[in-house]
Amino acid sequence: MSFTMPTLKLTHHAALTAINAAIDKALEIGWNVDIVVVDDGGNTVACVRMDGANLLSMFTATTKAQSAASHRRPTTEIDAEMAPSLASASGGRLTNMAGGLPIVVDGICIGGIGIGSAPDAEDVAIARAGLAAIGADERMPG
């Protein structure tokens, strides 16, 4: 039996690259948003509040990123019936609001990205731009 396993880690360079690509996409489609990138433990690696983004959306962007990393799936795929219980059990740190995507590299979830302040479809498009910039997927294999 092995007591260790190899893993991949999200770097600050990758987080900043994802954020810069997300900013570019947000500007392209006309939204000022909050962007948060977390590692596989839900710890913030990098974040930005674009000029004019909603103040409280930094919190929602964080919960979206943590939820996506924790559940290893887009936040919209977290069962709506479970959402109130998850939010309560996590002190409000988990959500099924659109705009959170896991960061999956080589089949391993290494973190999450969350976007807040734009409508749902735009939040997701901005998050996807961040993933594309670092060659990450938004889904676990299989």
Summarize the structure.
The protein has 142 residues and is of the alpha+beta class.
List keywords for this structure.
4 helices; 4-stranded antiparallel β-sheet; 142 residues; alpha+beta; single chain
Number of strands: 4
Side-by-side strand order of the widest sheet = 2-1-4-3
How far is the N terminus from the C terminus? 26 Å
**Order of SSEs, N→C?**
HEEHHEEH
Task: Tell me about this structure.
- It is a single chain.
- The chain is α+β, with helices and mostly antiparallel strands.
- The protein has 4 helices and 4 strands; from the N terminus they run H-E-E-H-H-E-E-H.
- Strand 3 and strand 4 form a beta hairpin.
- The chain is globular, with a radius of gyration of 14 Å.
- It starts with 11 loop residues before the first helix and ends in a 9-residue tail after the last helix.
How is the secondary structure organized here?
Elements: H1 12-29, E1 34-39, E2 44-49, H2 57-71, H3 83-89, E3 100-105, E4 108-116, H4 120-133
Antiparallel strand pairs: 1-2, 1-4, 3-4
